[in-house]
Amino acid sequence: MEEFQHSYRRLCKESGAEPQETVLQQLQELPRGRLDLATQSLTVETCRALGKLLQKEALLTELILSDCMLSEEGATLLLQGLCANTVVRFLDLKGNNLQAAGAEALGQLLRQNKSIQSLTLEWNNLGPWEDAFAAFCGALAGNGALRQLDLRNNQISHKGAEELALALTRNAHLQQLDLRWNSIGLLGGRALVNCLPRNRTLWRLELAGNNVPGDILRAVEQAMDHNQERQTTSRENRARTHVLSKEVQHLQEEKSRQFLDLMETIDKQRKEMARSSRASAACVGQLQEALNERHSIINALKAKLQMAEAALALSEQKAQGLGELLAMAEQEQRSLAQRQAKERRLEQQEAAERESKLLRDLSAANEKHLLLRNQVGGCGARAPGQGLGLKPNWGDRLPAPFLPLTWAGGTHDSSPGRE
């Protein structure tokens, strides 16, 4: 607040004027962003300073300038300052005798300002200046911020009402318009009634004290009732839409949170998968190395196996050769054994034949020996007394088969090899 006062003093000093104490007092208080200068007589220098302050001031939301008897120049300076203001929502210019210049300045304000929602212009003199008021109405047609407009007691004629009707057909934001105590008349009332079917946002239109017939007033009232019902429905729909929007926003936030949680979970899973992949890659590398080592061992074993198989094949060949040799040796051995057996049988047969022959010879010799013995015994009996020198009888001492035969004059050889 002190900064606002300081700025006001500085601007007044720059213009060579003294600051007004009443204005300083109001600037010091500023309850809830409301500057009330009602019934204060404001000089042109004060209006110029306030206009410059209002271009940048971000604290004021309500500006009350009713019954200040502003001059055309002062009002223009204030309104020019408000053109660039984006904070003021409520502007009261009641009872300031605004005329053509004021209407033009108000038109410029409505074309440039995008924040003022309520404009009170009661007890001014805008209606008689048809061109300026037409410019004001043209600016009103393109304004998208204003919701409430008070034009009571402004000497608005049926032509001014026609300009307002034309503006209302193009304005889709104004909700309340107060035209009481003007000079609209029958023609102006008809023009306003005819524009209402094309305006669905205006739900309050006051026409009392304008010499408007009752049927037109009833038609206006009926149209306002329809628009009010429409506005009520629209507000309910907006409320529902707002609730639904909040629910949708809540759902979106919930989905966003779930999505973020999901993304966080996915990131964790990705990190875990990457870690597992690295571990798996390391394990696969180790397994690959072990597999390569096993392959090397297997290849070495295969080489050894091939060598062993070659050696085995060679051994089998040798064994086959040895087997053949063994078979030949066995065959020869069997042949030899057969020959030997045959020879042995022949020898046994020959030995048996010789033995048989020897036995026959021996038997014949024994018989012959017995015969000779018997003969010798007879000869001894015939000549017992012969003084022959006889040899000792060895026959008594020898076995019978081996007794030698001794004959006088010779000896018989009984060897087995002789016949």
TrEMBL record:
Its main location: cytoplasm. It is found in: Cytoplasm, Cytoskeleton, Microtubule organizing center, Centrosome. GO terms for cellular component: centrosome; plasma membrane. Gene3D superfamilies: Ribonuclease Inhibitor. Residues 298-349 form a coiled coil. Keywords: Coiled coil, Cytoplasm, Cytoskeleton. This is Leucine rich repeat containing 45. It comes from Ursus maritimus.
